[in-house]
Amino acid sequence: xxxxxxxxxxxxxxxxxxxxxxxxxxxxxxxxxxxxxxKTTFTQAxxxxxxxxxxxxxxxxxxxLSSYQATMxxxxxxxxxxxAYRVHxxxxxxxxxxxxxxxxxxxxxxxxxADKVESVMPPETLWIxxxxxxxxxxxxxxxxxxxxxxxxxxxxxxx
Length: 159
Prior knowledge:
By secondary structure, the protein is of the alpha/beta class. About 30% of the residues lie in helices and about 25% in strands. The protein has a seven-stranded mixed sheet.
């Protein structure tokens, strides 16, 4: 498990820029954290780094899914922002068509409250747990060794 401590807005922006610049063009990110931890703020930073107006990115708590055309270092992608907070169970989440999103090439899927639907998230999900405290902390876990290695390089560059 990797950890990045004392993540202020400046470091958050640098983290998002590095992730968009270095991670693969197909990725699922599971965001975990309490209410107000910064899941949507982090998604806005990712969106901005991918050429999307951050003010267009809001919490999809009621819409459940928002999609955006984005650009990464590797080229154009679709960025899907989902929220599982109001989803009752995994079946309801799957009914949204998430499996097709997870499998789509040139696609990033960011899922807030992903721990509520952990059993149906892809095995290679990049899990980011955000701890809201005086020293906001980001923890990274992933079964994909290449993604985790890249995250390790990114975290080290921000220390």
